Amino acid sequence: MSYSICDSDRVRTVHIEAKPDHLLRLARLKDPAGAVAEMIWNALDAEAHNVSVEVEVNEIGGVESVVVTDDGHGMPNASCAHYFEGLGGSWKATAKVSPDLRRGLHGHSGQGRLRAFALGEQVQWITVAQAADGRMQRTVISGVADRPADFEISEPVLVSGATGTRVEASVPAGYVNRLTQDDTAQQLTSTFAPFLAANPGVRISYQGDVLDPATVWTDTAEYPVPWSGSGGYPEPLLRVIGWPKNVGRVLALCDANGVVLDESSPGIQAPGYHFTAYLLWDGFVERRDDLPLAEMDELSGLLECARERLRAHFKKRDMERRVRLIQEWKNEGTYPYSGEPVEPAQAVEREMFDEVATRIARRLPGAAQSKRTTLRLLRAVISRDPGGLYPVLDELFRLPQAEQDELKRILQRTSLSQVIKATGEVGDRLDFLAALRKLVFEPDVSRTVKERSELHKILERETWIFGDAYALMISDQSLDAVLRRHLKELGREPEDGRLDPVRREDGRRGIVDLLLGRAHRGNSGREHLIVELKAPKVKIGQVEVAQIKSYAQAVVNDPQFRDPRVRWDFWVVSTEMDDIVRRDASAPNLPPGCIAEWEGGVRIWARTWSEIIDDCEDRLHFYRDRLNQDPASEHAMEYLRRVHGAAAPETVMAG
């Protein structure tokens, strides 16, 4: 510290040994509300009972000055040089509590007075305190932002009256007009809410209005936070205060009286809620120097316990809010469900609808009819394709990023979205099997079904009936195309693209109805399935078997196909088979349906639609029982018309 004498020895200057740009960074010039809060905390640390903040605004709405006044014990002249001379080393860091009222102290870093430069480029502290001899002294400390390292301290002047300090900031700083925003008082209220709740005798006012959390908070709740490391201190307490507007989310670390010692991130997702969380524990006082690193030491366990309590709090709030909104929708007749869900799938669907709809409730139309239409649209999308809901919501409501992220999280949850999608797929499959039975077995329909233009086209989109793992590779193409796709899957395509043509034994090309493929799990092997479809009225006999065998022979005889990693199955499928083929398909040394097995992993099958449909229903029986779905109902034909309208036979479309 250095001194300069001027004005007839009435002023001395204390100098901070630090670069001016560093000091101005500590001032945090872009945060005037934080600077006001710092001045208030300084007053409370000085045991003030009354603190007032006045912001003088000119005719055009610009801030002219900021004044913070308190009735605390002030700063004795003899101590002013020590208070202002350096960075760090604040008396508060060692005192922990105020001398008379034993309040927990907010300040401890010895940098708080620099925050005043965020309010004005010229700052004065006019303070009245009791000197060592018991007399009252007034001292004026002045600083300017151009020389933030220097503070001028006046000689003491004897006065009468009460103690206290008045901070006057003039020549407005660059961002000080932010103090005129509507939410400034609310921000300050959120900052001091726990302290004011614990100290009802303290009065803080901003622009003449008393800061009273009870007048602005929407709700408040408290929870004990059991923690094994609390030592001899009373159990930590989590206080959660909700606000009508966003005041900036923080997890404030406080002593038991609500003095904020440090701040951390809440670390939770709670879209639609504005809140401040206060973790109150006297153990923070002894560890206040370590609080900026609390996430990295043993205190991290306490913070995580608090966050778990916070998550549970908002989960409960979500449930309460959801019940309230849904009841309102039911009362006004806009809720798209009636009664209670009967089946598990219905319960899952409704759970997802309730969660999504209540998330976007604030953005729903106000008019009952429009709201009813929107909610019905949401229900329709969720019941059919929950994965497609997000783009619909984005198009309808243009949601902000935070709500987009939350909805994506909901829609990606396996317990909801995937279950709904899976049950929807199972329902569709059961409907299709019922429709397929009608197509191939019901006389009035089956005799008119065309193999290539109707049955074939339908099965191109329903290849799961041949096996869930199969994927369509080619449809209604030549054996040459089969070869090309086979080589592509194995990565063996010739560089020049040339391949020898594939021919059946009689020299003809051969057109394959369906080529399906699937990879083996855990290795590079593959299975290929060639399916030859016959119209329902065609019985599988020797001619049909000869045709499918000629395809198998073409593959076996052509060296271009050979690969030990690939197994081939060839199916001929229709409604019935003659007696000779049925005997071959029931041979005791082969799997049911297999009529021949050749070397090189080649098998030839004759399959009936009844066998294939029964196999599929066996795979789906578990879901069918729980969905309580009748696969012979009208839903089957409705599915065929809706999904395969262009390929469905006229008799189905007419139905």
Automatic annotation (TrEMBL):
* InterPro entries on file: HATPase_C_sf
In which domain of life is the source organism classified? Bacteria
Q: What is this protein called?
A: DNA mismatch repair protein
